[in-house]
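FAQ
Q: What does a multi-component entry look like?
A: The components come first, one per line:
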Amino acid sequence: MAIRLHTVSHTYTAINQPAVHALKDVTLTIDATDEFIALVGETGSGKSTLVQHLNALMAPTSGTAELFDVTISAESFKDKSIKKTPIRKRIGLVFQFPEYQLFEESVLKDVAFAPKNFGLSQADAEEKAKHALSLVGLDDTYYARSPFHLSGGEKKRVSIAGILAMEPDILVLDEPTSGLDPQSQKMLMDVFESIQRTTHISIVFITHDMNWVEAYAKRVLVMQSGELVFDGAPDALFNHPELSVWKMDLPDRKKVLNYLQSQFKLQTPMDDFTQLLNAINGEGDQ
Amino acid sequence: MPLIELQDVSFSYGKTPAIDQLSLTVEAGEWVTIVGPNGSGKSTLAKLLIGLLKTQQGTIQVAGETLDETTVQGIREKIGIIFQNPDNQFVGVTVKDDIAFGLENLSVPYEEMLKRIDHYSKAVGMDAYLDKEPSQLSGGQKQRVAIAGTLAMKPELIIFDEATSMLDPTGRQAMLEIMHALKASGKTILSITHDLKEALPADRVLVMHEGRLLKSGTPRDILRDEPLLKKARLTLLEPFKYMNQLAKKKQLTDEWEALLWQSAFTL
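Then the predicted structure of the entire assembly, as tokens:
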């Protein structure tokens, strides 16, 4: 296992404020290859705190985070001899609104910045950058362009390429589609799917949109009040009796089909509208 | 007299116009939802309305008054705006301070201020967080505080500029309920979004594309119009896909249309 969190708890403390238990005894493992994981949970459930534990940006208050060959705990985090940079190179974290962090004068330079920073020559860094840009679907016509004059979706792709250029084993994305229009959101999700398929790296993405969970994720993690309450397949989640207790939404398709099904008093759940129509129209369609 | 009237308004940041000879009206008490893709000029329009940007051509009238340097202050008091990113609008040290900030500027009496903080923090579900600092809140929670602060100033028109796009389903639902309550209390709502679900409860939907108004119509008309929505980089909601699927087979009865319309409100 590439990532192994063992009873990780994280408590935020501030002067004159009651402690906030953002993570409570979270135990989970993530493989280094072929995972496509959606991380969901209502506002304040601990999702963002959790992903910061996945690449050693934070240390557990108690418990341990094994990140490849390094074990991070409250004690070891302070140990200067344990280098965190190699972990952050292997587990690339893309923050929400990464486009705010673009700064170079050209797309290629921006994407080449990180690999160069990790010690590669200009030429090698640019090679990695070009490959990363091709992964996010931006061709050579983008290399010389200013990142600031791109559309929202393109800017996000450039900043994600910046992380991909470090060739991480695992890509972690905090609400990657936030702020984009529906078609740009879908394009970006398609980009992640194709990266996953071609490179076999594992991808973890935070989202509120169950439509993306249904369409793309192979596995879904549900956080509630700092606890990991579900770890399984999306379909198992959508049929879980505690779904509403966790304040989780259903995908649009399921909401509409469930509503129609109850209106027609049909017993079996329907997979799509055509199936529902056939069920309503009876044997005639068989 | 409309509450908002734009006549031939144009604005450009560089060479390409962000708003291109746009004319539209919003009546007092109306709920208008403007939909369009990134870069269609929706947010520029919001900034023009509150005088953050100056029109380069055409006129904007608010409640019969033409927006210019002499009227902008008075007009701003009539318009509240909620932006997309809560981090850019949190000014207080605590939640309570943040809601109070705008009220202090309006010299609202202390007792009244406390009443409004109580009322609007409850309305957005943040009443348990009044003494919390922004660093202890998530993005969605900060956004709800911003909404409480704006509503507390009791503006006539409230602009929601992609305001729900960073909220979780519960937060979004709470927001929509607030919007319904505002509408019921006679407030005018201008919601700018690319979430078509927010067009459902509107009185009127405006579709923007490249700074122009592609179409204005009722939610029922707009939400089924696949070529129009495609042009505006938007995706049909599930129930309207089904409506079109039935219509193609000439099977869209009034009953089906009513049922599918109703099903859209479960989204």
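Q: Is there any commentary attached?
A: Sometimes. For this entry: Chain B touches chain A at residues 36-39, 84-85, 131-133, 135-141, 162, 165-171, 194, 196, 233-235, 237-239, 241-242, 245, 259-260, 262-264, 266-267 (CB under 8 Å).
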